[in-house]
Design goal:
single chain; 597 residues; Immunoglobulin-like; Zincin-like; Neutral Protease, domain 2; eight-stranded mixed sheet; six-stranded antiparallel sheet
Length: 597
């Protein structure tokens, strides 16, 4: 570690025994104010809107001031106070346990280390905007390392740790730059002249040539939306796992999780390409074109915004759109996917309880903390945001006779709120407000969309799907049918039919069923997690008697059963829209529903 001065912060990470899952951290800085210096561990990481309490994994905290050991006071759950005077040299040490493999957390074992810095490196309060240097001493034999940050040196030495040097402009960049260590394959390609590296971590069955070609094609498809690539380089880290998935965006890279043997499964592989598209579009949508609340970050508290439906929902719309634009799915397949999102949302009880603005604001307490009642009082801003993204795209296209689309909204947002061409360039761009976003949409569409935005975002009223789709000459049908749905979900556990969810409103609720009830019999017939099938077999009786076990006590629930209606939309291309030529020549949504390679 090089010498420090008052204008920077130096970090060092050692992994002396990866089998123990610990990283040892040293922070060196100069106290530049009178009074105590505070050092804090973030409680969350940008892009994942949940307080994760990373300080819970910290231990063995110690500190030297001018090479003399001093006592450190912990003043709250994630902050330590150091009694240093101006000019004192502070050396702050701790260990952090890293054994949670996800795109948001850190993981160390005998084979590899994935370091997401919000969960490893604390920040010196008041010095978050200063530059600095990170040195990593990784175990001997680990010869591979990647990061969105520039690795300025890697000097593997026989029988000694590899020493890596990384430089950062500020703490935000440090947190936004995961580091992957170990031994893994890499593939490389360029998009719009920008070099891309893909780290393939862990055993997998990927066809490297095909994966390289497909990822390059998807990335170029996403770049074409705004038309300008903002990076000097881009890094993908793909962690291969037995089961699971997910991704997290960064300003110059992303971390993805993929089933290790899922590459020869068409559905799994298409899911990976969609995930690549999603995290890649975040390069523009949220990392540069961002809600005003999401930067500079407050790492000690929740960062609230009503605009996560834009940051995540519209990104989700574009990742589905990308698969069609890139030629991996047909236009009708895309419409079927959109129809599925609409039907699932409209039949979810929570869609009539909370607005989209409320769901964005409450992400910190609802999106990642579902309960047995979540379907009744909430939904995902990803899914409804996707729907609104599609409706907004269609509305802009209709208003401009197909001359403009949502792509043009993002081109304008990029110029006005990242490049700031009208107000002088600002290095990290300006954040937009909800009103700013509406104003840009109005400008591109040439009409006032305020009434639509109010209905879509600030009310629980369903959008007028029929009118919007018919305006674009798409065939759309709406059916309301009684599906004899009981309004509950059950699972079989040790031979018992256990209720896991009860819809409110719904027939199961009316009959008095609760979550955690064991359903034993319906009208005298024993159940085996087949309530609806048994009801059909015994003649669909209106009067029902259900025997349950609730907390060790048997009860009989009686009443009249009547399933509730479900809404179902079906969307299709009409006879005039079966060829690409229609979409190229007639205007409406020619960008939205044209396959281009």
């Amino acid at each position: 570690m090089t010498n420090i001065d008052a204008q920077n912060v130096k970090y060092e990470i050692r992994i002396p025994n990866p089998k123990s899952h610990y990283a040892e951290v040293l922070i060196k800085t100069i106290a530049n104010e009178k009074g105590n210096t505070k050092i804090s561990m973030p409680v969350w990481t940008p892009g994942s809107y949940l307080v994760r309490e990373f300080a819970k994994n910290v231990e063995s905290v110690s500190c030297d001031i001018n090479n003399r050991a001093i006592e450190v006071n912990k003043i709250d759950k994630n902050t330590w106070s150091i009694p240093a005077k101006k000019g004192d040299e502070i050396s702050f040490r701790y260990k952090v346990y890293c054994f949670e493999l996800s795109v948001r957390t850190s993981f160390i074992d005998a084979d590899q280390a994935l370091l997401n810095m919000a969960s490893v490196l604390m920040f010196v309060e008041g010095k978050e905007k200063l530059n600095g240097e990170l040195t990593i001493l990784s175990p001997a034999g680990w010869l591979s390392a990647v990061s969105p940050m520039s690795i300025t040196s890697q000097d593997p030495m026989q029988n000694s740790p590899n020493e890596l040097f990384l430089q950062f402009e500020n703490y935000d960049e440090l947190v936004d730059s995961p580091v992957q260590l170990g031994n893994f394959e890499k593939i490389n390609f360029t998009v719009s002249g920008v070099p891309h590296t893909v780290a393939l971590v862990g055993l997998n069955n990927a066809n490297l040539d095909k994966l390289k070609s497909d990822m390059q094609h998807i990335c170029q498809t996403m770049t074409n939306i705004v038309g300008t690539h903002p990076c000097k380089k881009y890094t993908f880290i793909i962690q291969h796992v037995e089961a699971g998935g997910g991704g997290l965006e960064h300003k110059n890279g992303s971390t993805l999780m993929m089933s290790r043997f899922g590459y020869n499964n068409p559905s799994s592989y298409q899911g990976l390409l969609g995930l690549v598209a999603h995290e890649y579009f975040h390069l523009w949508n949220v990392k540069r074109i961002r809600p005003i609340a999401l930067g500079p970050f407050d790492y000690n508290n929740e960062n609230y915004t009503k605009s996560l439906w834009i940051a995540e929902g519209i990104t989700s719309y574009y990742d589905e759109l990308a698969l069609m634009r890139a030629g991996y799915v047909s236009r009708q397949d895309f419409l079927n996917t959109l129809m599925g999102y609409i039907n699932n949302h409209e039949n979810r009880a929570g869609s009539k309880v909370a607005t989209l603005h409320e769901m964005s604001w409450d992400a910190w307490i609802k999106e990642y903390r579902p309960s047995e009642n979540s379907k009744n009082n909430s939904y995902s801003y990803y899914s409804k945001g996707l729907i609104i993204g599609a409706l907004l795209d269609m509305t802009v296209s209709k208003a401009t006779n197909g001359k403009k689309s949502l792509d043009d909204v993002y081109k304008s947002l990029y110029n006005d709120f990242y490049l700031n061409t009208k107000k002088g360039k600002v290095k990290d761009g300006m954040g937009y407000t909800d009103e700013d976003f509406l104003n840009v949409c109005n400008k591109v569409a040439g009409v006032d969309l305020s009434a639509d935005f109010n209905k879509w975002l600030s009310s629980t009223e369903s959008p007028d799907y029929l009118s919007i789709f018919k305006n674009l000459e798409l065939d759309i049908k709406k059916v309301e049918a009684n599906k004899f749905n009981w309004g509950l979900n059950c699972e079989l556990s040790n031979g018992k039919t256990i209720v896991k969810y009860v819809r409110n409103p719904g027939p199961a609720l009316d009959l008095g069923l609760n979550v955690n009830d064991e359903i034993i019999a319906l009208n005298g017939v024993r159940l085996n997690n087949d309530l609806e099938a048994i009801w059909m077999k015994i003649g669909r009786p209106e009067k029902v008697e259900i025997v349950i076990n609730r907390g060790g006590l048997l009860r009989n629930l009686t009443g009249n059963f009547k399933g509730f209606n479900e809404v179902e939309y079906a969307i299709s291309l009409n006879a005039n829209q079966k060829t690409n030529d229609y979409w190229l020549t007639e205007g409406a949504l020619q960008k939205w529903l044209t396959i281009t390679k």
